[in-house]
Amino acid sequence: MNRLQTMSRSWRLLDRYLRPLWPGVTLLALILFAAIAAQVATPLVASRFIDQAIGGAAMSDLIRLALLSVGLALAGQLLTVVETYVAEQVSWSATNALRADLLAHVLRLDAGFHAAQSPGALIERVDGDVSALARFFSEFVINVLGNGLLIVGALALLVRVDWQVGLGLGAFVALALIAVLRIRAASTPLFAAERQASADFYGMIGEWLSGREDIRSSGAGAYVLRRCAETMRSWLTVTRRAQMRGYAMLATSQGLLGLGTAVALGLSAMRFAEGALTIGGVYLIFQYADLLRRTTEQIRDEVQDLQQADASMGRVEILLATAPRIVDGGGDALPAGPLSVEFSDVSFGYDPDFMVLRAISVHLAPGRVLGVVGRTGSGKTSLTRLLARFHDPDAGAVRLGGVDLRNVRLSAVRERIGLVTQDAPLFHASVRDNVSLFDDDVPDGRIRAALDALGLGDWLRSLPNGLDAMLGGAGVGLSAGQAQVLACARIFLRDPDVVILDEPSSRLDPATERLAHAALGRLLQGRTGVIVAHRLSTMAYADDILVLEDGRVREHGPQLALAADPASRFAELQRAAMEGIAG
User: Which helix (H) or strand (E) element contains residue 129?
Assistant: First the structure.
């Protein structure tokens, strides 16, 4: 990427996230420029003090200059403290806004995107890459501009003191800055590779932590550690290359500036011996040479931060530019009241060359419950994901209340549909937040009423802190059945018109299954429902049955009629289930 593209990308981010923070940015600029003025003025006052002290000036004048010099030094330190505080405020505000935008964008992306990304890698991109932009947001432009002005001012004063020293030191500063910019241009791809290696590592760690039980039970710990070592070695290789390029920048700038300082001091000594400079002038040259060295090193550090930030900016822009394959609908309204569900000649596949569902046509009247059965891989879950519009069909249409879902806003679809899965995820948060999904506007009374209605009222009252009781991320303190009912309470609280139950009791034992089934029955009352289950006992609430085989409709009709027909596929599945229980 050329420099114009890099500058354009940097400006877009600065404009988007610093414009709303302009009061803080303006204050930060004023503080930094005041600190620069203090840095320039302090050596001038000190050099005048030295010359006047040697020249026998009055004590009152010397005291005044000494106090002014000390005051400038203290003011510089105070400004540094205030600048750090304001810069942190600006930095965290900007990066938190970017994190929020990235997280919201990631949540809008379709299921296909998330299937191709590990959670750890996404966490590293949402947090790690954004953290690398912290200094870029807070101080980069102001520091580079301010330090550039400081260099120009210091060199101008040096030329005024002695033009030979000023021009000589200016040449070394220019060489150091040119070398830094050239090395930086070659380093950016290396730091981009390092950020990618970091994301790959954290993605791998996230996957292994999710599968820790399988890894330990299979005795695969040693193999996992070996793969971890291989990944870290690869990470080390790209990191070392990036860091060595950064060290090359450091060594080059320090060498040139050190040589320039030595030349400046040598020239000062010669000019002093010739009587062209006073001791105060030599001191001033030494201080300004050191100031130029420190300022140029600060610019070098900013440029080094920029090359790391540039790599992160590229990854952030790529993520923000990733468009969801599910396009928001045009705004057609769903009818009020109970909704019908219709799959009209629907075909769908995660891979274009392999269709999971083939020409599915099913109609479910409002208020009825459809039970979907079939072998693993027959397309049951895919059917429900189309209804929730996590995916769009490759052919045909999915309609809710007679309206094609592709013509309805996603938010409107999700408001009218509730989904309960077999995993029943719980968060490390209070019972209140787990049920309301962190919506502070939901009254406690509604939450308690929902839990009471689904059979968890006694459990809630047994908790010492009630709704404030904390639950673990894995459902600590809850049985599997209670966790499933808590997931149902979320849907019950939203009061959707269509409820999808995807294998809601597949992981429950018979005792907890009874608790969950009672909640499921309460949840389905007065709503259109779709139940996917291997256990036929869950189908007790179904009015109609859909049997899928190899992605096609094998059988569809009222449950009572299919169960009464010994030749039906559903009756055959029922007999097989009874024989399994008897066996």
Answer: helix 129-131
The DSSP bridge partners found for residue 346 are: 360
Starting at the earlier edge strand, list the strands of the sheet with 357-364. 357-364, 341-348, 395-400, 403-404
Condensed to tens digits (0 to 9), the pLDDT of residues 309-349 reads 776 777 788 888 888 888 888 878 898 888 999 999 999 98
Question: pTM of the full predicted structure?
Answer: 0.66
**Is 546 in contact with 532 (CB distance < 8 Å)?**
no
Q: What tokens does 417 get? A: 């549909």
* Contact call for residues 24 and 138 (beta carbons, < 8 A): no
Rounded distance between C-alpha atoms, residue 3 and residue 303, angstroms:
13
* Closest listed residue to residue 420, CA positions, set 532, 312, 514: 532
Residue 320 structure tokens: 């923000």
How many Å is the Cα radius of gyration of the chain?
35
Cβ-based burial of 427 (10 A; exposed 0-12, middle 13-18, buried ≥19): middle
Pairing relation of β-strands 403-404 and 395-400? antiparallel
Answer positive or negative: Cα dihedral of 474, 478, 484, 490.
negative
Stretch (H or E) spanning 532: strand 528-532
Which residues are paired to 371 by β-bridges? 531, 545
- Those residues with Cβ within 8 angstroms of residue 67's Cβ, 6 or more apart along the chain or in another chain: none
250 close to 23: Cβ distance less than 8 angstroms: no
**Planar angle of CA 74, 76, 79, nearest 5 degrees:** 110
Per-position DSSP letters for 472-514, written without gaps between them: -TT-TT--HHHHHHHHHHHHHHH--SEEEEESTTTT--HHHHH
Nearest Cα to Cα of residue 552 among 359, 406, 354, 331:
359
Q: 528-532 and 369-374 as β-strands: parallel, antiparallel, unpaired?
A: parallel
DSSP 33-94: HHHHHHHHHHHHHHHHHHHHHHTT--HHHHHHHHHHHHHHHHHHHHHHHHHHHHHHHHHHHH
Question: Which of 461, 463, 512 lies closest to 488, judged by CA?
Answer: 512
Q: Which two tokens stand for residue 387?
A: 């209804």
Q: Nearest-CA neighbor of 144 among 19, 308, 306?
A: 306
Quick count: other Cβ atoms within 10 Å of Cβ 260? 23
127-151 confidence digits (pLDDT tens): 777 777 776 776 666 677 777 777 7
